[in-house]
Amino acid sequence: MSRLLKCFAILLLASTFSSAQDLASFEKRVVVKKLPNGLTAIVCDRPDTAPVFSFYTNVDAGSVQDPMGKTGLAHMFEHEAFKGTDTIGTKDYTKEKVALQKVEDAYTAYLYERDKSEGRDEQKLKQLEQSWQDAIKDAQQYVIPNQFSEIVEREGGENVNASTSDDHTEYHFSFPVNRLELWAYLESSRFTHPVFREFYKERNVVIEERRMRTDSSPIGKMIEQFLSVAFTAHPYHRPTVGYMSDLNSFSATDAQAFFDRYYIPSNMVVSVVGDVDTAQTMALIEKYFSKIPSHEKPDERTTTEPPQGSERRVILHERSQPMYLEGYHRPNLKDKDDAVYDALADLLSDGRTSRLYRALVRDQKIASDAEGGTGFPGVKYPTIFYFFATPMPGHTTKEVGDAIHAEIERLKKEDITDDELKMVKTRAKANLIRGLDSNEGLAQDLAIYQTYYGDWRELFRTVDRINAVTKADIKRVANQVFVTTNRTVGIIETAGAANGGAQ
User: Fold this and answer.
1) Which residues pair with 268 in a beta bridge?
2) 296: burial class by Cβ within 10 Å (0-12, 13-18, 19+)?
3) Which of 28, 188, 204, 402 to pair with 459, CA 20 to 30 A apart?
4) Helix, strand, coil percentages in the chain from 3-state DSSP, rounded to 5
5) CA 432, CA 14: separation in Å to the nearest integer?
6) In the 8-state DSSP scheme, what is residue 236?
7) Is 60 exceeded by the pLDDT of residue 314?
8) Would you list the DSSP string of 256-287?
């Protein structure tokens, strides 16, 4: 009954795809403008909503852009996002600026002595470290902690946040519409007058984050090692959080250099969605964001991942429940078959009616969960289609791996049913409608699709592409991509238990 109700709800939602939600309607309400400095601004007026708006600033730089030896640097901007500017978060910026430079000078001297290959003076090293810590303490006296976020929240802002992925870095929050100019001032000033205060304090937070989520987490370790084996050349093999040695080495000076290179107008899209006046909003964006200095967009070329050629495996023995992960290389999101991969992910993983759940969890009862998905760890570059399952007690990773392979063989040899294909297409439309429902979700989608495709309209065209997917497409792509020589496997075996996954 619950499955029937869910299917009915999806069909009902899709059937309500009215003129207020289709592309033609949005084209009347969405305005895009590229400022003279290269920044792209998107404004979508939603007059029938509450008097609030959401924004989404997308910077086309993520951990893929981390310099060699400085992994985790892109992620630091998420932690530094709301530390303030030269006028917010400081008691006296003139003095703070001098103090921050002393921190960098002291850290450079400490790092030079610490990283000597020979002849390091341990006593001198301790003195240099103490000088660096003293400089940090001196700079801290000028800081007004959390002032930026407190201003936002005091003025009615909500959901202040930022995040980093392999492909991009995002910043967002929501505001009452009568605070539109305050938002434009605050958000633009983070890019015109950034100050990397409390940098090493936040770097320590990231170090603890790595310890908790990777070094002390069996699944975190497995995923990191899985990606390092699946990608031997492309930067997707590096962790977004960074390697520990890099986290203990890069500096605020390095962050400034990264900022100067990538945080430039031509690398940014700012979207605003809500009950706003389009002309007024665009005028405010031009007034404040045009002040960001213009530079040429950086070279986006990366090392191309060579063809794999043979199966690769990573096996960890941990005091943990067993887990099974496998992945297959696939092209990036602009590939002609991208919609086919989306359809495959939906077919395999969407809810309790999905193929993997029914086969491994419901029918065979060998796994507590099972899923397949696309775009791991990113989508901008050639990426991975993955399968994941957690064996039930008494069952092995080999069993769930074999069961996953059986489902893959079904896809290769048998056409999916008419009902399955119809439901995949219906859910695609329903998911789009749900994404359009909130200002936050729509602002994010507009900025992301504008960044990746150069046209926000691709958000709507994804549904058209999934509608064009055929049974033959599913079978063709499955046979083309899900082959042993293109497979990488990651396994966690419970330490001390019988080995069920290394066969």
Assistant:
1) 59
2) exposed
3) 188
4) 50, 15, 30
5) 9
6) G
7) yes
8) HHHHHHHSSGGGEEEEEEES--HHHHHHHHHH
Amino acid type, 307: P
Residues 6+ apart with CB under 8 A from 205: 79
The rounded distance, in Å, linking the Cα atoms of 50 and 53 is: 8
What CA–CA distance (Å, rounded) separates 467 from 63? 33
CA-based R_g, the chain, Å: 25
What one-character DSSP code corresponds to residue 267?
Answer: G
> Does residue 107 or residue 351 have the better pLDDT?
107
- pLDDT > 90: what percent of the chain? 88
What is the pLDDT at residue 295? 84
pLDDT tens, 214-243? 999 999 999 999 999 999 999 999 999 999
Question: Which of these, 438, 410, 409, 424, lies nearest to 468 by C-alpha position?
Answer: 424
Whether residue 460 contacts residue 22, with contact meaning beta carbons closer than 8 Å, is answered with yes
Report the range of poorest mean pLDDT among 15-24, 137-146, 164-173.
Answer: 15-24
Sketch the domain layout of the chain as residue ranges. 40-90+143-289, 312-494
Tokens, residue 490: 């990651």
Confidence band, pLDDT 50/70/90 cuts, at residue 424: very high
Cα 329 from Cα 374, distance rounded (Å) = 10
Please tell me the pTM assigned to this model.
0.92
DSSP string, 122-190: HHHHHHHHHHHHHHHHHHHTTB-TTHHHHHHHHTT-EEEEEEE-SS-EEEEEEEEGGGHHHHHHHHHHH
- CA dihedral 194→197→199→200, nearest 10 degrees, is 160
Q: Which residues pair with 391 in a beta bridge?
A: 367
**Angle in degrees, CA 49, 55, 60, rounded to 5:** 145
Q: Do domains 40-90+143-289 and 312-494 have the same CATH topology?
A: yes
The CATH code belonging to domain 40-90+143-289 is 3.30.830.10
Average pLDDT estimate for 149-171: 96
- Copy the structure tokens of residue 121: 């003076």
Q: In the 8-state DSSP scheme, what is residue 235?
A: G
Q: Which amino acid is located at 100 in the chain?
A: L
284 touches 184 (CB < 8 A): yes
Q: Left, alpha or beta for 466 (phi > 0: left; psi -120 to 50: alpha)?
A: alpha
Q: How many CB atoms lie within 10 A of CB 386?
A: 22
- The answer to whether the beta carbons of residues 41 and 32 sit under 8 Å apart is yes
Q: To which CATH superfamily is domain 312-494 assigned?
A: Metalloenzyme, LuxS/M16 peptidase-like (3.30.830.10)
> Residue written as tokens 């390091």?
120
